[in-house]
Amino acid sequence: MFKRFLFRVFRKNETEIHDLSYLFWECTWRCNLACRHCGSDCKAEAQTADMPFADFLHAIEPLEQRYPRDKVIIAITGGEPLLRTDLADCGRTLRQHGFRWGIVTNGMLYDEARHRELVAAGLSSITVSLDGLEETHNWLRQHPQSFQRALRALRLIANEPRLIYDVVTCVHGRNLKELAQLKELLIANGIRHWRLFTIAPIGRAASDGELMLSRAQVEEMLQFISATRKEGRIDLKFSCEAYTGKYEEEVRDSYFFCRAGINIGSVLLNGDICACPNIDRSFKQGNIYEDNLLDVWDNRFQEMRDRNWMRCGMCASCQDFKQCLGGAMHLRPGYGEPIRRCYNFRQQGKGLRART
Amino acid sequence: MFKFFKEKKQRLLRFLFGTFSFTALMFAFQACYGMPEQTIEAAIQGRVTDMETNEPVEGLQVTSSIVGLVDTTDQNGHFADPMGKRALYEWDEYYFTVTDIDGAEHGLYETMDTSIRAMDLTQPLQLKVKKVSDAQ
């Protein structure tokens, strides 16, 4: 109880200070896969051109004066960021300006030459997706080589001591029973850091009911995470996508804390300034082509720093609201809207409650 | 000025939370769909010596905001976190306290507080304590 109280005090304090320390750059909407669960519904040939790096660099220059060197990390995402042939040049320039940087990738284009190029350009952190054993991963990613390419990337990364990395797995009905085998595969390949997600009902996934887990399946996944963490053979955690009630101290290193708009911001492909890129775009706070990024960060984002408006729908009467603060921002369809789903397994002993 | 005090408060709260939760990883977060923050691996270990004589000091309790109790120094002044290496957020600062828990048995020493950046924990710590009086 006291730890939870302290955590709430800590969170309130962090919210008041709201240092920007994690900034997404959605550099492209192009993607070389057409995954069934894609949250951004990317296409092979996006209709919107990639953002010129110079535009992004100009937007973030004010951050150099505000924050100490290495304080801010730039998370380059897409689409598939490796489709940008200037990625290493972008990263090298970011490093020269005092920003750390990393990428989130499907691994399709991550071969040894690219690996060396990016590490030499200062890549410090990387996340690669692996969504099951070979057949399941290729089904979800809709590409027969996607599993082998991702595994190739993971082997390169696991043997690179300069990189911080993890593997993310989106859990759904088809791969839930494979998690134990997948764990052994990762360990056998030297992977030490693994993170599980469920698939959010946004983007392309919103229309595919097969990808959503049932209440019992979510609990099975959380129990798998808890048991694996106790084994201590691989650093496994549940993502920060949801408050989990009685599992809060078993499935992560820390309590659920949605930092969108508190420590996390983003510059989207069209220049919009938001928090995490998967948040509903109605929450946009400005645009780098019209506004100063630092001014926007300092003076807007109020609906993310004061979340009392989230006390609606199933959250309205929830006894855990003060601990969870209404869940993750990306599960709100818009301001004043109730949450799409909840993974609170403590509330009234009823577990998962999903809005229908 | 207001910002200055807020930052001081944040530092204190981080210390408190780290101490009571036995984890420093609260401060190393990652966005849902982003990659991990940069962390480093370090084993909390080192040696405590007398500030004036440079001799090792036995019987001192070392605690940190990372794990709470780390260890008690042995006859060579050594201490080590039994968990071995941990992932630490390299940009963050951690607080250490060295407390004399055996009274005058191995000399009486003042409690010592210090803060150390994670990147400095990749090397064994060299901590110095000040003697209050000789053992009886």
Q: Would you write up a description of this structure?
A:
The complex is a heterodimer of chains A (356) and B (136). By secondary structure, chain A is α/β, with parallel strands linked by helices. In chain A, 31% of the residues lie in helices and 15% in strands. Chain A contains eleven helices and twelve strands. Chain A is globular. The two termini of chain A are 33 Å apart. In chain A, 49% of the residues are buried. Chain B is mostly beta strands and 136 residues long. Chain B has one helix spanning 2-21; strands at residues 39-50, 60-64, 68-72, 78-89, 93-100, 108-109, 112-117, 125-129, 131-133. In chain B, the strands form three sheets. Chain B has a four-stranded antiparallel β-sheet. In chain B, strands 4-1-8 form a three-stranded mixed β-sheet, with no helix packed on it. In chain B, strands 6-9 form a two-stranded antiparallel sheet. In chain B, a hairpin with a 3-residue loop joins strand 2 (60-64) and strand 3. The longest helix of chain B is centred in the first third of the chain and has 20 residues, at 2-21. Chain B is globular, with a radius of gyration of 17 Å. Chain B starts with a helix and ends with a strand. The model of chain B has no long low-confidence stretch (mean pLDDT 79). Classes of the chains: A alpha/beta (356), B mainly beta (136). At the A-B interface, helix 1, strand 2, strand 3, strand 4 and strand 5 of A face helix 1 of B.
Instruction: Give unreliable regions of chain B as ranges.
Output: none
The CATH class assignment of the largest domain in chain B is: Mainly Beta
For the largest beta-sheet of chain B, the strand count, sense and barrel status come to: 4 strands, antiparallel
Specify the biggest β-sheet of chain A.
10 strands, mixed
Write the CATH architecture name of the largest domain in chain B.
Sandwich
Percent of residues in helices of chain A: 25-40%
Counted by DSSP, the helix tally of chain B is: 1
Terminal-residue CA separation of chain B:
49 Å
User: What is the radius of gyration of chain B computed over CA atoms, rounded to a whole number of angstroms?
Assistant: 17 Å
- What is the quaternary state of this protein? heterodimer
Share in β-strands of chain A: 15-25%
Query: What is the terminal separation of chain A in angstroms?
Result: 33 Å
- Whole-number tally of structural domains of chain B: 2
Q: Based on CA inertia axes, which overall geometry of chain B fits?
A: globular
Structural class estimated from helices and strands of chain A: alpha/beta
